[in-house]
Known about the structure:
Layout: H1 2-19, H2 24-43, H3 46-55, H4 63-84, H5 103-132, H6 137-154, H7 163-170, H8 190-213, H9 221-241, H10 249-265, H11 268-279, H12 285-300, H13 310-315, H14 323-330, H15 350-359, E1 364-368, E2 374-379, H16 398-401, E3 409-410, H17 415-425, E4 429-434, E5 437-443, H18 444-459
Parallel strand pairs: 3-4
Antiparallel strand pairs: 1-2, 4-5
Helix pairs in contact: 1-2, 2-3, 2-4, 3-4, 3-11, 5-8, 5-9, 5-10, 5-12, 6-8, 7-9, 8-9, 9-10, 10-11, 10-12, 11-12, 14-18
Amino acid sequence: MEGPTVATGAAYGSNLGKIFHLSYKHRILLLGAAASGAMAAIFKAPLAGVVFALEVIMIDLTVYSVVPILIASITGAITSYFLFGLGVIYPFEIKTAFVMNDIPYYILLGILTGLVSSYFTRVYVFIEKVFSRFKRKYIKLFVGAVLLGILIWFFPSFYGEGYEVTNSALHGNFDYLFDNYLFNAFSENQVVIIILFLVIILFKVVATSITFGSGGVGGIFAPTLFTGANTGLFFTYLIGAFGIKTLSRENFAMVGMAGMIAGVLHAPLTAIFLIGDLTGGYGLFVPLMIVATISFATVRFFHKNSVYTIQLAKRGELMTHHKDKNVLSMMKIDKLIETNFYILKPNSNLKEIKEAFINSKRNVFPVVDEDKMFLGNIIVADIKDIIFDTEKYETVFASQLMFKPPTHIELNDNMEEVAQKIQKSGLFNIVVLNKGKYIGFVSRANVFSSYRRLLKHFSDE
């Protein structure tokens, strides 16, 4: 319920902004505040709600933005307290205090959760791609239902949100590994326990991805917390099984949750405050910081974007704290193409070129063949010495005067690539091609004016 609740809250904020015709900046702020309030309410975690809006929704950190988000977050939390009391989803009690000697193990757990987070992202993207090949929705649902049914039959702990399993892990109990009667006889076998832990961790990600890929409704939070608690508990069991050291199962299960949130969402601060708020485990603040930070650093070696943003990044629609990139991502090349250029053929003679010069308001003339394949440009400044030389009118042709520009723009280039080409080439007009065919030109002046207009819209108070 957590993911859909936050998404629904964000939708409320966005739609309210549209109804009241607010500026882009105010709509984004409303979206962030609503998501923050929803998260604070569902998790009873007001601090995590604020940090989530700043880190994941990527609201700018200013007094202008923080105050409304703080109000929304605390309102959401108080409303939740009023309706449902002070209880939390994952009650946790610190029984073993943090000790300095455990720091190397927390570092190792951070690396492990970072690697599992990378696996989570890869599997999520892969399975979503597989299901996208199904053209009919009912086939998707049928295949997803069958696969999930098989997984749940073998591992009943996958059923539902996973709150009971996560809470068991937080209490150091892993009896849920043997919910299926097939495994009861191996409850004392260390090798089987290790294998079952690995299967539970790895296939929970598969089950979650199948749910989303086949069209099911759910969120990322609960499966991530489930996987994190099991990863932390598995880590302590593995260290103990090899006789290295006896670690606190409860503490490492809780901190493992933070590591997975930091890695999957690419949000280490949200992970620290969410798990701290969610479990009341602020007594383990240092381990939370260590594991969340290292997990985030580890996953960044493999993925630059989280499961939330990876598809947006591929489409060039990811909005970040970088305003310049945001504005460029909002610009579309097809809206900037200018086509009022006089087109010449390679056999156009100098007389025809002169007529084009007289009748055109442009000083650049594209040369294309019969199939509209671009051959080169002619610039008036380059031929000013001969353009009025009547003796050459019938003997000099466009193919002799044209030149191939040093760069061009492809129709599917994003605006960041276009801006770089304009900057590096120094050209005022760059030709736009689609697989070699002439489409038009993009001008430096048009790009700059469009950029300024969108920047004003983006930053409008």
